[in-house]
Amino acid sequence: MRWSGAALVVVLALGIGAYALLSYARPYLHGDNCEVRTPAGSVQLDLEQAENAATIAAVSQRKHLPEQALVIAYATAFQESKIRNLMGGDRDSIGLFQQRPSQGWGKAEKISDPAYATTRFFDALIKVKHYEKLPVYVAAQKVQRSADGSLYAQHEDSAKVMAAGYTGRVTASVRCWYSPDRRTKPRLAAAAQLLQTGYGPPLHLDKNAVAVDDPSLGWSVASWAVSHAQGYGLTEVRYAGKRWHADDGFAGWTDDDGKAPAGRVIIR
Predict the structure, then answer these.
(1) Contact between residue 218 and residue 240 where contact means Cβ atoms under 8 Å apart
(2) What pLDDT digit, counting tens, does each position of 126-182 carry?
(3) Is 81 within 8 Å of 95 (Cβ atoms)?
(4) 45-94 pLDDT, tens digit each
């Protein structure tokens, strides 16, 4: 079959048009979501859940807690609120862990702050003798004192995957993506303040960089930034030879050709 020059031009034009259309549409195709993927499995989170999961991990890092403490916190938050900052619940329960002001967890406006609620949860957890050696659901129940503590057990596997990712023990394991029409204006100063509230000093964002002296901490911060990207208008995160960009968030972490430093997390 012989093609005329005109036919080839038409085919070529159609191909270029289809490619341009696909390139435009691709950021919209995957919707909005996050994923934590490790060798042990994967967990799907929506953007709100990912933000809260990152905050819980940040507080655990600030308090220098073992990974098992984070596993217990995630299993608890999954059961109590599906890792959402609920403004109500059973009786006067509020927030990620459905803590009750009437039971001494603090004022309602305080408990509705994820970092505060998480701090209070960990403060109670570390008072549980040998909590890190107890079954997850037993440790969680000793803090929560819920009607049926066995229910926390069903979230243990997901909690372990998330803890491995958000502590940075498994590198480049947290990715988030969202369509361009959900882009928000950059609020880097607000993000910097939230990061320091979670992780605590001396960790801070200075001129688009967070200095880190430990690879796990670096990946924890990088995962935090990716998880908060949509809410704070962050478009790029670089660390340890890898790069995440909002334009192609579904692709996750890609090689950065030596531009991403090992001692600093770049956040823009």
Answers:
(1) yes
(2) 999 999 999 999 999 999 998 899 999 999 999 999 999 999 999 999 999 999 998
(3) yes
(4) 999 999 999 999 999 999 999 999 999 999 999 999 999 999 876 778 99
